[in-house]
Design brief:
With 166 residues, the chain is of the alpha+beta class. It has one domain: 3-Layer(aba) Sandwich (Glutaredoxin), CATH 3.40.30. It is 46% helix and 15% strand. Strands 1-3-2-4-5 form a five-stranded mixed beta sheet. Helix 2 packs antiparallel against helix 3 and helix 2 packs across helix 5. The protein is globular.
Length: 166
């Protein structure tokens, strides 16, 4: 089961009042999460009843830029651009580097100085760590991991759309 349930601290897109809630625990550097990104995007376009939440689960021991990518998304969130940065990070997944994060912030027309300061903010580190810890409590041990209406989806992420439809 998903622990904790969706709250106001989560990043939500899609239909805010959607009857189907999907939570992804993801890592911006995980190649499977990169593939799932396209599946989720297609699902959100195909179905109008989806409330989609992304929670960070950076596998920092195996993905050098996973934590910094999560911090970049959170720094962008402070300027109301979480989902734009989320998408940009996945679209540029093969190029993740310290130099890429401010470049993406510039492309999104973020306040660059604020973005750089926020990337260093321990409150954002705590937010990412809280997402990770909630994943551990929910039984997440790899990425991507999805929950549909609070229950773990154990199928292949490529079958997510058909699972939601049934």
């Amino acid at each position: 089961m998903l622990t904790p349930p969706i709250t106001s601290r989560d990043h939500v897109t899609g239909n805010q009042q959607g009857s189907t809630e999907i939570v992804e625990y993801g890592d911006f550097q995980c190649p499977y999460c990169g593939e799932a990104f396209g599946v989720v995007r297609d699902m959100l376009q195909a179905l109008s009843n989806i409330k989609f939440v992304f929670r960070h689960f950076p596998l920092a021991e195996s993905h050098e830029y996973a934590m910094d990518a999560a911090l970049a998304a959170e720094a962008a969130a402070r300027q109301q651009q979480f989902w734009q940065m989320h998408d940009a990070l996945y679209l540029h997944q093969q190029e993740l580097s310290d130099a890429l994060f401010p470049e993406l912030a510039k492309q999104l027309q973020l306040n660059l100085e604020q973005f750089k300061e926020d990337m260093q903010d321990n409150l954002l580190v705590s937010k990412v760590e809280a997402d990770f810890e909630s994943g551990i409590r929910s039984g997440v041990n790899g990425t991507p991991t999805f929950f549909i209406n609070g229950k773990r989806f154990n199928g292949d992420y490529r079958n997510l759309l058909s699972a939601v439809r049934h």
